[in-house]
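worker-3 :: picked histidine kinase
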Amino acid sequence: MTAADKASARVAVRLKWTILAIIVLMAGALGLKAWEERQSAHVAMLSALQAQAAAIAGRMEGRAETAEVAIRLVAESGASRSAIAAATPGVDAVLSLKDAQQSPAGSRLQVAAVTAASLLEQGYRFGVSSQGDIILVSNPEQAGAMLAIAPAGTWLPAVGAGRRVTLVSGNTRVGSGDPALEAAIASLNPGQTRLTSAPDFNRLATACVPLDGSPAAVCESVLHPLFTLDDLVRLLIFALLLAAPVLAIVGLMNRLSREDAVSLIEETREDEADRIMGLVMRSARAGYWEWAPGSSAVFLSDGASDLFGMDGSGLIDVQDMLRQVHPEHQARMIETLEKARDIGWIQTQFLSHSEPPLWIEMRGSMTQDPTGKTSIFGGIVLDITDRKQSEDRVKAAERRLRSAIEGFNGPFALWDHRKRLLYWNRAFALDFGLQDTLRPGISYDTIMIARTGAIRAEKQSSEDARTMIVELQTDRWLKLVERPTADGGLITVGIDVTENVHNEEELKRQKQSMRKINLELERSEGRANELARGYAEEKAKAEHAAHTKSAFLANMSHELRTPLNAINGFSEILAHELYGPLGDQRYKGYAHDILTSGQHLLDMINDILDMAKIEAGKMTINPQPIDPVDPVDAAVRMIRRKAEDKGIQIVLEAQPGLPDLDADHRAIRQMVLNLLSNAIKFTDSGGTITVTVEQSGADIQIGVTDTGIGIPIEDLPRLAKPFEQVSGSRDRNYEGTGLGLALTKSFAEMHGGQMSLSSIEGEGTTVSILLPISGASERVAEEDAREVA
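worker-3 :: tokens ->
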């Protein structure tokens, strides 16, 4: 070997070592860059996890503060332990520290007392006991130290598989979520954030946030795969970045020895690189493209050609490529290419003209060609059909959800984690009068202020502190329930409970009525002992008088009605000429007068006998639950013809939805008939009589108002007494016994009600009957019991 050959060989060896060193340095630099990007991704992941843990810690601190304030306020007010527990939902027990310290050793309360004493000594507000309970402490000066015990599991959010939220305090660990992660996080320390390896090629990311006012910390752990798709893509990219110069350098090295072989090797390497790139792109259902602005041709790789439904790669006419775009999207594609020259980038989505059609996303940016003289666009095309279909399914699900929410007849609202409005239904806007106020993003507090005009009253539910009972200005009652969502948001749902509230009010009224009856019975028992002797003496006299009066009433009933019925019967035969004409029409008129007078006399006798029975205590009623409108309507129908014959209009006005009335149907009808008869008697032709039926508190009020002659105010006090008539002092143009109002008043009092009378002389009269909705049956039963006794 010549010296020149040796020198050439030494130069070649040195060059090879130099090139090898360059390759090693490039590989090291790329590896370091890959490691740096991976570490940055880890930092970002841990930061996001830290934020989530901080959010959970914030909610727990807020809940602890709320519970502490409630315990302190109620404790200082001297309320019972049950009142304190009711004011702090989710708390198992509330007691003084002194009571807890006296519990048996090793018990839950004794362990809680030890923990509470330690917390007070260190100046903390709450902590975790060794048995996994959250201990809340309060030390008001007036009431002494108190503690509350709550299961830690109820304060931690529910998470799914691969996630776990842990409350860490010393050696105590309490968590919720995936139990498989419990062993992996056993060595956690408060405030520690780390990323550790886990079985099955996974990594466990853990972030801890200390709780303000507590020695404990909230830790959230999430299981991630050791290598994600982003890691693999990043590794592939760096491998390709390293492979290209390595191939070039290897080619250059070979070129130093054999130029022809180098050329072949370079072509082979380039083809191999293209083949690998093509495999990668096809696996990702993607392709590469290049286009020079103003050029009529575009370069498409094999993967890109496949997506466009074209054969082969290389330069393709732009118009041919556009023909592979769906006709509806061609105009948008042309506009995108034209704008690309000005903005320097391309990003669009379109539907292909293939069968079946594919959704394709085209992305790219402007770069310089290797010479640096020409600007070209380069980028990738991706098959996003699956993603589009998933988006369509999500949108369809959202539409179905919106339809379901709109179909819900109660108010509904959804808020994000910052309590900003995301969605609401029509009922939410209408019920609270917020049609002109609602918009996405408006704050929860703003809505709470804006809705006050539509709310008449609001109170907290006795069953749930997070539930409010709201009375609207429209007389409707809503039960508003608010619950948190998994992402920290809030859902507001309203349920119409108007009927339930009315039922509760009715039940309260009935209970008050029962209490009044009980009090009356208790007072009566005291008086009964004092009157026992006098009652025994008077009883014998009363029984004798009642027997005498009963015999008289029986005789009067028979002796008066029997001949009177005969007179009425014969006069009716004559008036109707049943056995032939009477001849002179005056006889027929006389017969009709006899019949009218006889019927009037019979009615008077019946009224007198009824009044006598009432005074003798022989008149009874049979109260049953009835519709209060039925007997009133029956009375109106019975007397309507009589009113129409006189030219008087009767109007019945009944309030809808009235409750059943505990009353005697016949007695109610008779009372209304008496009042209507009086109204017709004292109302001139063309007048109006209005009958009303409505609820007044715990009573049903029946009113009869006429437009008749009215009653002087000085005569009102003596009416409703037997045989009293105002007309008697002025004229005798109005027939009657004066018993109608007296009978009506007596029937009303037998039901436990009352009758009232008001009138303006010359304008009309109003008679009102006020009957209790319930209680008539009990009143009759009491009277029967007294009679038996």
